[in-house]
Amino acid sequence: MVKIRTFETAQLATVYVAAIIEALITAHEHPVLGLATGSTPVQLYRQLVEFHHQGLHFSHVTTVNLDEYVGLSADHPQSYRRFMYDHLFSHIDISPEQTFVPNGQAVDLAAECARYDKILEAHPIDLQILGIGHNGHIGFNEPDQALQTKTHVVRLAEDTIVANTRFFSRLEDVPTQAITMGIQSILQAKAIILMAFGSDKAAAVRRALSGEVSTSVPASFLQMHPQVTFVLDAEAAVEMKMLGRDPIYSALEP
Ligand code: GLP
């Protein structure tokens, strides 16, 4: 069963997740972190940078990101490679060769997907961090009649494109395709933490945990994984009551 940890604020929830990552990095010789982009993990990365300033090292860590827009260069301000550089990689002691993000500018996208699957095979993920889209997507696995298991190219859903316009000056500039890890690749992580903050995520969180597994809510597949924790703030947890699961606020100890 999916564990749910609810905190009064997103800040407390973030400190909780950062402490889990710190413990993993400290305990493992070669930890592999699966990382996500979006506004949800921004404070998490800030906290990890803070831990680095206090002495936490990342030189033995490998990171594998979930997804990347097709067509954006690695240094485009809205590319996920650039996001990771700006928010985390440039502030910690990790070498670029240990950080993997799909190449959205690959000429042969099918070959790039196959290359990324090989990377995932070579670096089994110890802990995968996820956000969730309003439509229940994880990575860029959008609701569909069928979901792909491995790394693949997706056409982004209309509502995802609209949601992403806030990062681009014009709707026409928002990429319409992305490369994303597949559902099976995500489920292969040893442990998964999905973070969701704010009332606008409450319905997606409820649908992901409803007990049904459906391709119309990709995050619902997480219910099949043995070690998943949803880390929520109070607002994202408001619809938990509809599932008969009262949000009990957690203290910070794991
Ligand atoms: C994008 C990313 C997802 C992320 C989602 C939610 O679609 N591909 O990995 O979870 O946005 O983003 P936010 O955290 O900004 O709400």
Overall description:
The chain is an alpha/beta fold and 254 residues long. It has a single domain, classed as 3-Layer(aba) Sandwich (Rossmann fold). The protein is built from seven helices and ten strands. A seven-stranded parallel beta sheet has the order 1-10-9-6-2-3-5, sandwiched between helices. Strands 4-8-7 form a three-stranded antiparallel beta sheet, with helices on one face. Strand 2, helix 2 and strand 3 form a beta-alpha-beta unit. Helix 1 packs across helix 2. The longest helix is centred in the N-terminal third of the chain and has 18 residues. The chain starts with a strand and ends in a 21-residue tail after the last strand.
The pLDDT mean sits at: 94
Q: What class do helices, strands and sheet pairing give? A: alpha/beta
Query: Helix tally?
Result: 7
What's the CATH C level? Alpha Beta
> What share of residues are in beta strands?
15-25%
- The total beta strand count reads 10
General form: globular
Strand line-up across the major sheet:
1-10-9-6-2-3-5
How many separate domains make up the residues?
1
Point out poorly predicted stretches. Answer: none
Largest sheet: 7 strands, parallel
Q: What Rg do the Cα atoms give? A: 17 Å
Q: Could you please say which CATH topology applies here?
A: Rossmann fold
**Helix fraction bin:** 25-40%
Rounded to the nearest angstrom, the distance between the terminal CA atoms is 17 Å
Ligands in the model, by name, code or SMILES, are: 2-amino-2-deoxy-6-O-phosphono-alpha-D-glucopyranose
